Amino acid sequence: MESPLTHSPRHDRTTTAILDAAAHVLAVDGTGASMTDVANAAGVGRATLYRYFETRESLLEALAVDAVADVGARLADAGLDGVTVELAIERIARAVIAVGERYSVIVREEIETLRDNEEVERLLGAPIRAVFARGVETGVIRSDVPAEILLELFGGLLTSTIKLVGQRRVGREDAAAAVTDVFLQGFRAR
Predict the structure, then answer these.
(1) How buried is residue 116: exposed, middle or buried, by Cβ count under 10 Å (0-12/13-18/19+)?
(2) Are residues 113 and 66 in contact, defined by beta-carbon separation less than 8 angstroms?
(3) φ, ψ for residue 78 (rounded to 5)?
(4) pTM, rounded to two decimals
(5) What confidence tens digit (pLDDT) does each residue in 126-167 have?
């Protein structure tokens, strides 16, 4: 069987269509979404979907890999170290919101292969932790809340915001500003 990440142009287009459709369907319908729903949304037959992704889990894992790589690249390009903590948090929010549905699906589905994954920590966890640590050191973020709790709450806030953006109830820029404001107001050092 050919890998879903084979780099032929046709394979890449089909893989992208499937991943885009899966992100949308899973974001909207959650765990109730079937592989048939994904195939229909992608405009491919079920047989084609199963040639690319043998199981729902393999589809979710590919979606997760795609989301982590995308957010990681955006964070790497965000210049987090060269700006204030407040601006760095806003840039993180923008990066995650831009990836949108893919990110919310991987958070909600709690994909097992991402747990304790060194690559996820390197690409996502470490840069965000560094900003939070700098925030604590500089007195911007309160020091009485453990970093893991900050990450969980920030992630939950981002996931909820992505849902609102997907429903077109708020624009991306307003969403990033709101996430930043709500997070910092709740965790600003006193």
Answers:
(1) exposed
(2) no
(3) -80, -10
(4) 0.79
(5) 999 999 999 999 999 999 999 999 998 998 899 889 888 877
